[in-house]
Amino acid sequence: MARGAAFRLTAPVLREPILHQQIAATLRREIAAPLRRSPQGVIWFSIDIAGYVGNVPGIRTSRGIVAGVPDIIVLHGPRAAWIELKATDGMLSPAQAAGATELLGNGCRYGVATSVEEALALLDAWEIPRAHRLRML
Q1: Which whole number is the average pLDDT over 110-124?
Q2: Per the domain annotation, does 29 fall within a domain?
Q3: Of 33, 45, 107, nearest to 73 (Cα)?
């Protein structure tokens, strides 16, 4: 019997829509419902412009809907924190990289998360209060 290449198990890549749903469910537990203030004064919500290149992009851009806007916004006091969600094999588009530069240059917090754990780690690094109902291993 000839020996073939070693068999290797790899985790499936979690696509952004599923990741977005998981993180939204986590933020509901850790902060509050979208656009509802937590007892600690934190508000979060999502923006989905995945259909940006649809049939009428001129109408969208005339209303200020542009590519590169991060997926989740978290507001705590006067500061905004922006989280871009990416699959583990994903990369920022040029519009997303340019948007990140503009947001960071304006004093906002900005981060990229490829998992629930990374999203929570960003919140913790930014000292944004959360319930800590979920504990990461």
Answers
A1: 97
A2: no
A3: 45
Q: Which residue has the higher pLDDT, 15 or 92?
A: 92
pTM: 0.85
The answer to whether residue 82 sits within a structural domain is yes
Give the CATH number for residue 105: 3.40.1350.10
Note the pLDDT of residue 3: 67
Tokens found for residue 52? 């940006």
| Within-domain flag for 79 | yes
What's the CA gap between 110 and 112, in Å, rounded? 7
pLDDT in tens, 22-74: 999 999 999 999 999 999 999 999 987 765 555 666 677 777 878 899 999 99
Dist. CA 98–CA 86, nearest whole Å: 16
Query: What value, to the nearest 5°, has the Cα angle with vertex 36 and ends 134 and 103?
Result: 85
Q: Which domain holds residue 40?
A: 35-125
Q: 26, 118 in Cβ contact below 8 A?
A: no
Query: Is 76 among the domain residues?
Result: yes
Q: Which residues contact 93 (CB under 8 A, 6 or more apart)?
A: 67, 68
User: Total domain count for the chain?
Assistant: 1
Please name the amino acid found at residue 80: A
